[in-house]
Amino acid sequence: MKKVLLAIGLLSIAGTTMAAGKSCDDVKADIDAKIKVKGVSSYTLEAVEKGSSADGKVVGTCEGGSMEIVYKRG
């Protein structure tokens, strides 16, 4: 059940953070705050070049869509 709620939460985060011109640091901070509110404690957020997110779930974009924010558990 927790996995389903986390997936729903991450999808809603991704939808709200698709702002084209925001810096990656700003987007990561917004996503980080939303994840912490949900009680998740062990995760990483990383800004990577668009299309290179093979090891995680894309939860947002930044830098005009050229970068993606990738969420990894653990």
Automatic annotation (TrEMBL):
InterPro entries: DUF1161. It holds the Pfam family DUF1161. Residues 1-19 form the signal peptide. Keywords: Signal. This is DUF1161 domain-containing protein. It comes from Pseudomonas graminis.
